[in-house]
Structures are given as structure tokens and as C-alpha cells.
């Protein structure tokens, strides 16, 4: 007990997990080796998780729940650690995105995730760390998650990806001139792919812009359509046809008043 490290559950989600694990272990009078035996690992592994030197894995969390009789408490905490900086509904959306036959994206203000370069994504994550919104660890997880998400779309039979960007997405400088130049060039390259379509909704359309926040629409292999809509603090995945169809209609209306792909690429090249 002399070398027992003080834990700060407020430091991070992983620290909270470790502190809770230790407290519940202490309540049962078990040492780390005894808990490790019940979980199926070594006492040193339990120690590393408790003190935050090693992040918990999903199997570890589920085994801890079984050993401590905590239902799915640690499994839920693991999920929060893994996806803690993602909005509700988004992890499930990404799961469907991996198999979608068609993906339609609209974004205002920022280039949407599937089209972001790593440097652009890193600049956004670094800004969130600077403002205290997320930790450095969460920032790295966010960028890593995005790169994996992009890689999952580069499959043998890629989906049709249709993107409408508000003009603000290509005009707002992110990460400095070099980062933004690389991002704009990447958008041009995206538009050249045989399975993509890119349009810019210019400022000039004014009140005819039919969408005012991030909207993602997925057409699944069975031809059903689901939507994911996001605000600053909430994400909502919806499969109810009466809710999804108005978004599909609004998306088509927006495409009708947006620049053509050739005009959009010309604007991006000028920028």
C-alpha cells in the first residue's frame, strides 16, 4: 500500500475507468492478482489499467463486468472512452456508411470528414484541444478514426458519393495556406473520380439554400435510406421514411440551384 498511486478520475475517461475499477475491487477485498485471475489477465495488467498506463480493451471491460457483477457498466465506459468525442448516433451511422451503395453529404462551414485531408483534420482537432473541448489523446483518436473511416470507403466496389458543399466550406481557411491549398487540391481530385459528384452551393443562392446544417443520407444495399443530421451538440440517426424523405427532397432541391461540378471545380481551382 506504500506505493499505491493516487488516482484522479477527473483527468480523463480512462482515469475514471481505472478509479472505478480500483474502488470496486477494494470493496470486495481483492488485490490486483485476485481480480486479474477472475478477469483472465495478470495483476500487473489490472494495475496498468487502474493507473491509466494501459487503456482498457472491450474484452477486458466485459470480463470486469462479469467478475465484479456490474452488468454492462464497464462495457459502457469502454464505449465512451472509444467513442467519447463522437456524438450520439454517429458510430452507428459510420457502421452503415461502410456498406452503403450511395452516400450523399451536405456540409456548411467545414469540408466534411470523408473528404478531409489528414492535415486539415489535424488542424481542427488541434483547435479543439486548444479550446479545452477534447484532450490531446481524444484529438489523436478523432483523426485516427477519420482516417480509418475514409479507408473503409475505398473498397473494391466503392459507393457513389455525392457531395454538396456550402461555399463557406471552400473559403474558410483552416490550418494555414499550405494546409488549405492541399485540401482544395484534394477536393479537385475527389471530383475526378468515376464514382463521385461534387457541387458547391454558392452564396448567391441566398434563401434558396434548403439545408442549413450537416446532413448525411445513406442508400443501403437493400435500397432503404437512412439519414444522419448533426448540430453542435447532438447527432440523430433516423430510418423513419416520413422523416427521411423531406431531407432527400431538400437535398435534390439544393443540387438544382447549386453550381455544376465543372463550375464548382473551376471555383475551387481559382481559390
Blueprint (SSEs and pairs):
Layout: H1 13-27, H2 32-39, H3 43-50, H4 58-68, H5 73-83, H6 90-97, E1 102-107, H7 118-130, H8 136-153, E2 160-166, H9 167-171, H10 177-191, E3 196-201, E4 215-219, E5 225-230, E6 235-238, H11 241-257, H12 261-270
Parallel strand pairs: 1-2, 2-3
Antiparallel strand pairs: 1-4, 4-5, 5-6
Helix pairs in contact: 1-5, 2-3, 4-5, 7-8, 10-12
Describe this protein's structure:
With 271 residues, the chain is an alpha/beta fold. It folds into two domains: 71 residues, 434 Repressor (Amino-terminal Domain) (Orthogonal Bundle); 140 residues, Endonuclease, Chain A. 51% of the residues lie in helices and 13% in strands. A six-stranded mixed beta sheet has the order 3-2-1-4-5-6, sandwiched between helices. A hairpin with a 4-residue loop joins strand 5 and strand 6. Helix 1 runs antiparallel to helix 5 and helix 2 packs across helix 3. It is elongated, with a radius of gyration of 23 Å.
Indicate how many domains the architecture comprises: 2
CATH class of the largest domain: Alpha Beta
Sheet with the most strands? 6 strands, mixed
CATH-level-4 superfamily name of the largest domain = Endonuclease Chain A
Radius of gyration: 23 Å
Instruction: Supply the CATH architecture of the largest domain.
Output: 2-Layer Sandwich
Structural class given helices, strands, pairing? alpha/beta
Largest sheet: spatial strand order: 3-2-1-4-5-6
* Oligomeric form: single chain
What is the CATH topology descriptor of the largest domain? Endonuclease, Chain A
Shape: elongated
What is the terminal-to-terminal distance?
A: 63 Å
Q: How many beta-strand elements?
A: 6
Mean pLDDT: 91
Protein name: Helix-turn-helix transcriptional regulator
InterPro entries: Cro/C1-type_HTH (IPR001387), DUF5753 (IPR043917), Lambda_DNA-bd_dom_sf (IPR010982)
Organism: Streptomyces ramulosus
Domain HTH cro/C1-type: 21-74
Amino acid at each position: 500500500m506504500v506505493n499505491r498511486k493516487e488516482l484522479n478520475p477527473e483527468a480523463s475517461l480512462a482515469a475514471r475507468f481505472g478509479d472505478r475499477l480500483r474502488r470496486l475491487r477494494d470493496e470486495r477485498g481483492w488485490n490486483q492478482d485476485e481480480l486479474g485471475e477472475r478477469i483472465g489477465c495478470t495483476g500487473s495488467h489490472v494495475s496498468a489499467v487502474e493507473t491509466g498506463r494501459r487503456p482498457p480493451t472491450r474484452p477486458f471491460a466485459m470480463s470486469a463486468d462479469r467478475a465484479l457483477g456490474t452488468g454492462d457498466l464497464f462495457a459502457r465506459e469502454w464505449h465512451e472512452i472509444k467513442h467519447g468525442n463522437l456524438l450520439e448516433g454517429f458510430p452507428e451511422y459510420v457502421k452503415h456508411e461502410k456498406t452503403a451503395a450511395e452516400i450523399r453529404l451536405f456540409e456548411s462551414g467545414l469540408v466534411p470528414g470523408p473528404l478531409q485531408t489528414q492535415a486539415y483534420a489535424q488542424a481542427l482537432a488541434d483547435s479543439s484541444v486548444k479550446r479545452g473541448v477534447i484532450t490531446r489523446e481524444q484529438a489523436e483518436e478523432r483523426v485516427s478514426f477519420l482516417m480509418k473511416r475514409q479507408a473503409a470507403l475505398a473498397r473494391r466496389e466503392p459507393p457513389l458519393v455525392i457531395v454538396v458543399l456550402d461555399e463557406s466550406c471552400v473559403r474558410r481557411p483552416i490550418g494555414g495556406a499550405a494546409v488549405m491549398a492541399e485540401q482544395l487540391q484534394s477536393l479537385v481530385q475527389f471530383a475526378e473520380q468515376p464514382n463521385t459528384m461534387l457541387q458547391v452551393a454558392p452564396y448567391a443562392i441566398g434563401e434558396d439554400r434548403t439545408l442549413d446544417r450537416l446532413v448525411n443520407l445513406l442508400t443501403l444495399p437493400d435500397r432503404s435510406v437512412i439519414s444522419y443530421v448533426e448540430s453542435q451538440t447532438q447527432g440523430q440517426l433516423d430510418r423513419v421514411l416520413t422523416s427521411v424523405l423531406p431531407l432527400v427532397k431538400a437535398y435534390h432541391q439544393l443540387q438544382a440551384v447549386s453550381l455544376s461540378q465543372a463550375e464548382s471545380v473551376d471555383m475551387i481551382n481559382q481559390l
